[in-house]
Amino acid sequence: MLDIASYDQINPPARLLMGPGPINADPRVLRAMSSQLIGQYDPSMTGYMNEVMVLYRGLFNTANRWTMLIDGTSRAGIEAVLLSAIRPGDKVLVPVFGRFGHLLCEIARRCRAEVHTIEAPWGQVFSADRIEDAIKRIRPRALLTVQGDTSTTMLQPLAELGAICRRYDVLFYSDATASFGGNRLDTDAWGLDAVSAGLQKCLGGPSGSAPVTLSPRFEEQIRRRKCVEQGIRTDTHRDGDDEMIYSNYFDLGMIMDYWGPERLNHHTEATSMLFAARECARLLLQEGLDNAIARHELHGAAMLSGIRGMGLGVFGDIAHKMNNVLGVVIPGGVDGEQVRQLLLNDFAIEIGTSFGPLNGKIWRIGTMGYNARKDCVMQTLAALEAVLNRLGFASPQGAGLQAAWDHYASVAEA
Ligand SMILES: *Cc1c(COP(=O)(O)O)cnc(C)c1O
Fold first, then answer.
1. Which of 45, 88, 231, 355 could staple 112 via S-S, CB 3.0–4.6 A?
2. Is 146's C-beta closer than 6 angstroms to any atom of ligand 1?
3. Is 60 exceeded by the pLDDT of residue 237?
């Protein structure tokens, strides 16, 4: 029997979220979300939608007209892009260096793509040459990349790939969810045709909205499909069904017509999430995107110094690590899950576990968004040292904290 009286108002425990995301939302974002709703075609609402487009052009470093939100978590952005780009039978190339590369493969297969992969060992990234060689060999229609793969903490350099894609007439997409706002991303300068992201990493918001940006070249591909679907274009050499986008919700052509001046009714825009997304972008742009990236770099590097100062090992090719997340090797003889439990129960701090080949081998510690702050770094290091000492991994008392502090001091003096 449902005893409704026993259900209290939602009141989650206070936590400091220092994992690979989600992280604590900026209180200003939470306040924006609690604003009252307005009608879908209220001029204030369409005004906010237009502002969101302008703000996200700033964050994506792009002049792309089609810069907007897909309602849903980051994965909704990925699906919208892939479903709208890929026709059944198209070849795509996915350089896989972690779990999210496998996700792109899986979604592309559901789009009936012919999926080709190249793989890098977890903890490493690809050279541009290796990707170009694969493009030459496979001649895919699209290159699907992950910029920052949180499963390994690595950041794939993208700057040179756009020119390569142009040379071979390949569409260039990246999932930037983990890296967006905390690491450089130059959509136009790097020749990206589509990028998707989310709010719950460096943007300091909750999950549930996926900002995307689409190049004019990408738009043209989508529009061509749409015309076929409506029976306007009949001169196609392809079967009409192959041109159809197999989703209504994620049909980017329809979503563009909803966000554009036509305002053709599609879904009901997730208003509270749009308020959150607008506030996330407003805060980052007021801080200055370069300053926000520098902040993630600073606190990420301080965490790295602290972890090393404690005598712990770090995972992967550190030169290619994202600014905002660090893989920490679980020392021998220590139960990684017990450490996470003690951190959560006695310090209310959450750090991340790992998947697949890294399961049980590393923790992932984030310094991102609202939690890319000195006090969060210091609290986490202090708690981790205490827990590890209690479980028998002795590090000199306070060594991690002092190393992080030294890092902050050295940067302040520089
Ligand atoms: C965290 C993350 C996501 C998250 O997707 P959700 O649908 O928001 O859970 C997607 N891609 C990457 C690379 C991520 O790091």
1. 88
2. yes
3. no
Cβ atoms of 409 and 357 closer than 8 Å? no
Strands (E) in 108-257, as ranges, are 114-119, 142-146, 148-149, 154-155, 171-175, 194-196, 209-214
74, 102, 196, best to mutate for ligand 1 pocket (most atoms within 8 Å of CB): 74
Which 3 state secondary structure label does DSSP give 414?
coil
Top-level class of domain 289-413: alpha beta
Phi and psi at residue 267, to the nearest 5°:
-90, 180
Please name the residues in contact with 368: beta carbons below 8 A apart, sequence gap of 6 or more.
21, 23, 182, 201, 202, 204, 296, 324, 325
Structure tokens at 99: 């779990």
Q: Is the CB of 175 under 6 A from ligand 1?
A: yes
Give the model confidence (pLDDT) of 303-326 as tens digits: 999 999 999 999 999 999 999 999
Spatial separation of the C-alpha atoms in residues 179 and 29, rounded to whole Å: 19
Tell me, using a 6 A CB cutoff, whether residue 73 lines ligand 1.
yes
For residues 360-368, average pLDDT:
97
Average pLDDT over residues 264-288: 97
C-beta of 150 in contact with ligand 1 (< 6 A): yes
Beta strands in 139-208 (DSSP E): 142-146, 148-149, 154-155, 171-175, 194-196
Neighbours of 31 (CB within 10 A): 13
Q: What is the pLDDT of residue 228?
A: 61
pLDDT digits (tens, 9 = 90+) for 24-37: 999 999 999 999 99
Rounded to whole angstroms, how far apart are CA atoms 111 and 39? 34
Q: Which amino acid belongs to residue 126?
A: F
Which numeric CATH code is attached to 27-285? 3.40.640.10
